[in-house]
């Protein structure tokens, strides 16, 4: 949220407008993919958390 607030201040817009603009920009950015063992895999940024089996299991437990 801090990034959206800074964007809003920098561009003289409301917080809602800033969030909308940032979401739109992210949605329009193409996904970079690699192919591994015949599957398309999204290449995540360096700041993205590592996806582990433990994380996947924890997310599965949250499903209804």
Give structural attributes.
64 residues; alpha+beta; 52% helix; single chain; 3 helices
Can you offer a commentary on this structure?
52% of the residues lie in helices and 12% in strands. It has helices at 2-10, 15-28, 53-62; strands at 33-36, 39-42. By secondary structure, it is α+β, with helices and mostly antiparallel strands. The protein has one domain (2-62). It is extended and about 45 Å long.
Query: How large, in whole angstroms, is the Cα Rg?
Result: 17 Å
What is the overall pLDDT average?
Answer: 93
Unreliable runs, pLDDT <50, ≥5 residues? Answer: none
Query: Can you tell me the number of structural domains?
Result: 1
Strand order of the largest sheet: 1-2
Question: Helix-strand pattern, N to C?
Answer: HHEEH
Q: Main β-sheet: number of strands, strand sense, barrel status?
A: 2 strands, antiparallel
Structural class determined from secondary elements: alpha+beta
Helix content: 40-55%
**Shape verdict:** extended
Specify the number of helices. Answer: 3
Task: Give the strand content.
Answer: 5-15%
Q: Kindly, what is the distance between the CA atoms of the first and last residues, rounded to a whole number of angstroms?
A: 28 Å
């Amino acid at each position: 949220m801090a990034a959206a607030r800074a964007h809003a201040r920098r561009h003289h817009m409301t917080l809602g407008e800033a969030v909308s603009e940032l979401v739109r920009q992210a949605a329009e950015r193409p996904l970079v993919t690699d192919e591994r063992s015949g599957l398309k895999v999204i290449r995540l940024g360096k700041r993205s958390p590592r996806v582990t089996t433990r994380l996947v299991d924890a997310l599965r437990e949250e499903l209804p």
